[in-house]
Amino acid sequence: MTDDYLARRAGFPILVAVDGSEIALRAVVWAAVAAALHRRDLHILTSYGVAPGEGLDSVVAASERDCLRADGERLLAEAEAVARNAVPHSEIAITTELTFDLITPTLIDRSGRQRMIVVGNRGRGAIRRAVLGSVSTAISRHARCPIAVVHGDSATGPEWAHKPVLVGVDGTENSVPAIEVAFDEASRRKVGLIALHTWSDTSGYDLPVAGWEGIRDTEHTLLAESLAGWRERYPDVPVERVVRCDSPARSLLERSTAAQLVVVGSRGRGGFAGMTLGSTSTALLHLAECPVIVAR
User: Most exposed residue of 48, 157, 186, 288, measured as fewest CB within 10 angstroms of its CB?
Assistant: First the structure.
């Protein structure tokens, strides 16, 4: 067990990217609550950067930059008001920023200096806005900090408050950061933790009967060993261990309906070194109903 993953980010702010869409404002609410829980500053960023092309930069700079800046400042003011309303009694600092740099490389470049980056799972499709659906996938592949992707419901209402945190555990080093983040989030939110481990990429119906008990015992042991030490460090977090013969994506999606947050690693058991984001993480980013944190 190591706490280096979060310790390296001590004191760093939480950054949320906005594009004027409704889902982006829900991401702001979630990020503000998370910043208050973590006692971190919140930085709200929006981008009006466009891909370079012949004549495009000069046209934007000459005729639209002032208009875009005014629109961006209005958008940021709205997002800041939403954030402050979400945590009215918090003392966290909230700052805003408009950039004309492209949003995806900007977020990836800054990810090494953030506690967490928060985005919506989709955004506006207009050329002047960041399309957060593509941004969420891209930064989850390449960022150097945890990435939180907020879906249709920001999971900050009272009906979510007592729901547990769900973490996918595959028994490899890749899931260690996810376990650490999940315990930390559960402790701060004062809820339980469901640690889910699967050992099959299929439904489980094709698993031969012979050796079933031995395989199941082995996988239970693997999960227990993965959690060893973390339960002692977080004695306030009740843990439910779940072992299933099923695909990770399907199992996590089914359980996520009863969770306020899902935490996964960037790739799972069997992933090649060159793979940047596993199929399980990708499926959850697009299909889960609650927020998902990818702990790279």
Answer: 157
Q: What is the pLDDT of residues 41-57, one digit of tens each?
A: 999 999 987 655 544 45
Identify the sign of the CA torsion 27, 33, 35, 38.
Answer: negative
pTM: 0.86
Q: State how far the Cα of 65 lies from the Cα of 36, in Å rounded to an integer.
A: 34
Residues 6 or more apart whose CB falls under 8 angstroms from that of 218 comprise none
Burial (CB < 10 A; 0-12, 13-18, 19+), residue 184, is buried
Q: Which domains are delineated in the chain?
A: 11-150 (3.40.50.12370), 158-295 (3.40.50.12370)
Nearest CA to 124 among 160, 71, 82, 195? 71
Structure tokens that stand for 23 in this block: 């889902």
Taking each helix axis as running N to C, give the angle between helix 22-38 and helix 176-189, from 0 to 180 degrees, rounded to the nearest 10: 80
Contact 198, 244 (CB under 8 A): yes
Residue 212 burial (CB < 10 Å; 0-12/13-18/19+)?
exposed
Residues 6+ apart with CB under 8 A from 183: 193, 230, 233, 234, 237
Beta bridge partners of 195: 167, 241
- Whether 182 contacts 193, CB under 8 Å: yes
In tens, the pLDDT along 256-289 reads 999 999 999 876 544 333 333 457 777 788 788 8
Strands 261-265, 165-168: parallel, antiparallel or unpaired by DSSP? parallel
